[in-house]
Every structure is written in structure tokens, then in C-alpha cells.
Amino acid sequence: MSVRQVALGLGMLGVFAMSAAAQQTTSDSKITRPERRELRRDKREIHQDRREIRSDRRELRRDVKEGDKAEVRRDKRELRQDHRELRQDRREARRDVKEAKKP
Fold this sequence. Notes:
The protein has three helices and no strands. The chain is mostly helical and 103 residues long. It has a domain of 72 residues. The mean pLDDT is 85.
């Protein structure tokens, strides 16, 4: 057996040991099914908020191009509201992750 083979064997053994240690979790730190559903729901809401922001930006650009000042004001209001909702959903998602990870 060469030194190279021994080193390779020890390296693989280390990888397996780290893999096994990473997979071991206590039952206290497991995320429950309802918590997982809540996290997915939060993620969907964030994606929906981003879609709305993209849509409102498109409308705003179109209205600016057409020179419709009333529509520009309305689009800017909607865009601000969408950004507020996005921030709120992100805060909620962070809070839910924190709660789910609590032991």
C-alpha cells in the first residue's frame, strides 16, 4: 500500500464522518410539516410580490412614455405599496424561519 492510497483512504473516511455528523440532528431542531408549509407559503408570497413589482414597473414605464401624469402617479403609489408588501413578507418569512429553528 502506498502513501497515496493511505491518504486517499483517510480523506474518504473524513468525508464520510463529516457527512454522517451533518445528517445527525436532534428531534428538537426538526422543522415540522406545518412549519414547512408556512415557509413555502411565505416564499410564494414573496415571488408574487416580485411579479407585481415587475408588472407595475412595466406599466409605469409605459405611462411615462405616453405622458399620462395621472397614471404615473397611480403606478408610483402601487409600486410603493408592492415594495411595502414585499418587505413585510420578507420580515414574516425571517420570523417564521427563526421560530422553526428554535429548539
